[in-house]
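Practice problem: predict the structure.
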Amino acid sequence: MKRVNFIRTIGLAGIGLGITGLTKGMKVKNTEELPPLMVDPEGKPIKSIQQWKKQRDLIKKRWLDYLGALDPNPEKPALKVLKEDKPEGLVRQYVEYEGEPGIMVRGYLIKPGRIHEPIPGIVAMHSTSDNQMLGIAGVEEGKIVAFGYKLAKQGFVVFCPQCFLWHDKGDRTDEQQVELFMDRHPGSRGMAKMLFDAQRAVDVLDSLAEVDTARIGCMGHSLGAKEAFYLGAFDDRVKVIVSNEGGIGIKMSNWDAVWYLSKDIDVFGHQHHEVLSMAAPKPFLLIGGDSADGEQRSPYIDAVKPVYGLYNKNQNIELRNHGTGHSAIPITEEWTYDWMKDHLNYIR
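Answer:
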């Protein structure tokens, strides 16, 4: 990775010197109190991987119950190609497939034109301002970084699913989109739907002969970073994660929105270091710009270090902060592509 003198990197890989800034007008909130993870329900210290796995099971059930998680769709996704083009030696397909049973959803599948053996796959989540996946898939050029398209050019099979907030939206508001979902699934929260859809995207990659299913990663920016964070924590098929400016702290972003965790999260009594801990020992890169994420999120990294330490994988979790705001800038692209290549290409 190229060194950039204004970047500060925080994590287990070391600390570089530099300067950082805050997004204009942003009010930095204090970090939530993060109770220790390495203590079992009886108050005894956790000192082994076996003990940790029991703790992880408790954490996972606690959060899935809170989300009102959906049962997975047992059917293998059958892709219907709606559009196809072949830019720059790639094959880019706009596809439709079944998400929830009986509900058809869409996404962009992008892959190298010539694949001689199974290669790694990545689920790339779009941000709020790329609701039709046109930017992330490289169909339209503009302010949205074409992460999905560029990852495919790096030699990955990439799937970019559409977030449910924009599924056949028409004139409906985000809140009305959530109401439609909750009418089908009373007691479930918006993040349960996002997690289900993200896992269904993994099903898509899992169904492709071109994908080495032992080497699947996920990434996202902003809204997509929240989805990638949850997907990487809850889905064991995902091996590598990049979350860029999603706001990992519950009180540091709009997690209380109805399309995420709802206002009940303020009284739930548990924090996101628990969710982050479930990703261990996977390579997890948290990218911040001192907006939704940044140096003020280092306590979350510190809180899960002992879990990664159990696996002797301290190098696998890192926070990198460019300090220039919420946007995905060129250095965040470089970090994302390098993280995926450095880790997905060498999983055995």
